[in-house]
Amino acid sequence: MHRRIIISALVLGLAATGGVQASDNHAHHHLQCSYNSDYDVQIKSDGIVFTREQGHPGNVFMHNGQLRVDGQTVVVSPEDAARLREYEHQVRELVPAMADIARDGVDIGYSALTTVVATLADSGEERTKMLQKLHDKHVAALQQIDGTLGHGFWRAGDDGEAFGNNVQETVADMVGSITGDVLKDALSNDPSKLAALEARTSSLDTTISKTVDGPADKLTARAEALCPQFSQLQQLQQQFQFRLPQGERLQLLTSDMDSDNKASQYADR
Fold first, then answer.
1. At the N or C end, where does the chain have fewer CB atoms within 10 A?
2. Model pTM?
3. Order of strands across the sheet that contains 254-255
């Protein structure tokens, strides 16, 4: 149930671009930070609920400086109450921002796929079918985001990897038809078909650059802009003075960098 929070939001949209890049010249988008959480998150008007099926605690509720863990109220100092309010505020801002990034990323990804099909598919009937299929999957992907992140609900399984697998299946379906059309034209020895094919393929890289690279770079920058907010959440966790019933700190979020450092320290022993 570990999920890379920022990367998941971005990959939801950008996974599509990986399957349709016309050449290696197109940039790959990597974020400078990523954070993990074991918890599903539900934002409600009366508070935020963090839940997980395994591990302790399994249910954490916070609102207006108050905290309940597995149904038991945790007494906190005025300073920690202020930190809990700030934590709640940050989460309430982050989830809608992640939803916006995911939606725009989906639009970019499916725009790229649509461009490939419209440019390379030679058969009018087959092209129409593939474009309709892409449209339907695009709509379904946006509905999935709106039904989860868009409603303040981060649910297990709704991550970038799952969406990426779905996109790869779509790309695989496209490849057979498009490759067949391209090979047929390439081997036809028909000068007009060869000229048309050359024109389509030479324009594809430029078109993809316009529809993917620029918007994707901007989207990556927007995702990067969330890093300080996640860092602030982690700092707030470290500043909490209260302890849970078994004496441990409340840790709803972890940094991949922390995990890598711990793994490195363990390997050096």
1. C
2. 0.74
3. 3-4, 35-37, 254-255
- Number of domains within the chain: 1
- Give the span between the Cα atoms of 41 and 61, in whole angstroms: 10
| Residue 9 vs residue 207, higher pLDDT | 207
Question: Domain limits at 154?
Answer: 7-23+34-44+78-257
Residue 125 belongs to a domain:
yes
Q: pLDDT band for 192, please (50, 70, 90 cuts).
A: low
Maximum average pLDDT range among 11-20, 88-97, 117-126? 88-97
- List, in sequence order, every residue forming a beta bridge with 66; answer none if it has no partner: 63
Residue 89 belongs to a domain: yes
Name every residue whose Cβ is closer than 8 Å to that of residue 246 and which is 6 or more positions away in sequence. Answer: 56
Q: What is the average pLDDT across 72-95? A: 96
Contact (Cβ atoms closer than 8 angstroms) between residue 38 and residue 52: yes
Can you tell me the distance from the alpha carbon of 242 to that of 68, in angstroms, rounded to the nearest whole number? 12
Is 60 part of a structural domain of the chain?
A: no
In a domain, 113, yes or no: yes
